[in-house]
Fold:
Amino acid sequence: MTITTSQLQTVCNDLVVILQKRLPNQDPDLVKLIGQQYFMGSLSRMVSAAKFLKEKKEGAVDLAEQDLYFTLTYPEEIDPKQVELIKEESGKILAGCLQSFKSSLIS
Structure:
């Protein structure tokens, strides 16, 4: 099953809503900007890595062959500490989603 960009965008939008609720004291526009980039970047790279793993059926897999890194862009007047806080909370949300998914596969 192929995941479309619009499906990824829907998931990212839902995750941003969760992120905004967890960071009510942060600028909601900044949270949305950073959250969208973080979730879309992370999820699109996971999809890319999954395709790579599917195509590479035999032998050892070296994920270092994959470009899993991305940078976040934001206005230069924004305090990088705010961005780090948003990024950290985004990571916790995504990790929680992955843990929940993993648990559902094991059960």
In short: The chain has three helices and no strands.
